[in-house]
Design goal:
Elements (H helix, E strand, L loop, with lengths): L9 E3 L17 E5 H7 L8 H11 L2 E5 L5 E5 L2 E5 L12 H12 L2 H11 L10 H4 L2
Parallel strand pairs: 1-2, 2-3
Antiparallel strand pairs: 3-4, 4-5
Helix pairs in contact: 3-4
Length: 137
């Protein structure tokens, strides 16, 4: 509905013990999910298989970003697939990394920047939010 009005809708849900509800986000501008959610949405989903990524995008009728923690993410936008490696850091606490990634991605649509932003969020204990000066250290 919002996409029809020109509003870019980004949808995301972190699957834990809850039932996967990713298909509720059909027709979003972007659906962001972790690898576990992608696997529970598409049988035999493989993050390195372009056909699986296209199948997921087609099922949701959306651009899709699938995150895979320290291994980075894959994005399909307008049927173009790009892979974005994660920044190599020594993680102290990964709590909040996905939220950090998502907030940066919604603001920039730049998965490489979002990976970097998330990498800075895992360098301290607890949910921390990096600031721009952290990115240049």
């Amino acid at each position: 509905h919002f996409n029809q009005k020109g509003v870019k809708v980004f949808s995301s849900s972190q699957k834990s013990d809850n039932k996967n509800r990713i298909t509720f986000f059909k027709n979003s501008y972007f659906v962001c999910m972790n690898l576990m959610e992608a696997i529970s949405t598409i049988d035999n989903f493989k993050i390195n298989n372009d056909e699986c990524v296209r199948e997921l995008s087609n099922l949701l009728n959306s651009n899709v970003c699938v995150t895979n923690g320290a291994k980075g993410c894959i994005v399909i936008k307008d049927d173009v697939i790009t892979r974005h490696p994660a920044a190599e850091v020594k993680a102290v606490d990964t709590c909040g990394a996905g939220d950090s990634f998502l907030s940066a991605f919604v603001c920039t649509e730049d998965a490489s920047f979002s990976n970097l932003w998330a990498s800075k969020a895992v360098l301290e204990t607890g949910t921390t939010v990096p600031n721009m000066s952290d990115l240049y250290e």
